Amino acid sequence: MLFIYYPKCSTCRKAKKWLDENGFEYDEQHIVEDNPDYDQLKALYEKSGLPLKRFFNTSGGIYREMQLKDKLTDMSEEEQLNLLASEGMLVKRPIIETESICLTGFRQKEWEEKLK
């Protein structure tokens, strides 16, 4: 299991605490120091079955500064993945990946259903 997170993010800390309390073993990937590259993001996106927009941190300052809300619809999948790969703070976090699933953001009920 891979846990992609940003340590200063309160949601990531809650998710990490939940994983630890429930006895999950996982590898950590710091989203800023080791930002997922294009290939990793594409694989996560494909495994998740989610719309690519769900991989963007829509509440983040960089997302708002770049006015991506209005631009994403005109961007290709490749352009969006390249953008995500260029800046870790644009990526929705945390991300959890197992052999069969990928989840973005921490919604405890969803994690309980899909990881247990």
Detailed description of the structure:
- The protein is of the alpha+beta class and 116 residues long.
- The chain has a single domain (2-115), classed as Glutaredoxin.
- It is 43% helix and 12% strand.
- It has helices at residues 10-21, 38-48, 61-65, 68-71, 77-86, 108-115, and strands spanning 2-5, 27-30, 95-97, 102-104.
- β1, α1 (10-21) and β2 form a beta-alpha-beta unit.
- It starts with a strand and ends with a helix.
Salient structural properties:
single chain, 116 residues, alpha+beta, Glutaredoxin, four-stranded mixed β-sheet, 6 helices, 4 strands, globular
Let me know the average pLDDT.
96
Q: What ranges have pLDDT less than 50 throughout 5 or more consecutive residues?
A: none
- Tally of helical runs: 6
> Would you list the SSEs in sequence order as H and E?
EHEHHHHEEH
Question: Main β-sheet: number of strands, strand sense, barrel status?
Answer: 4 strands, mixed
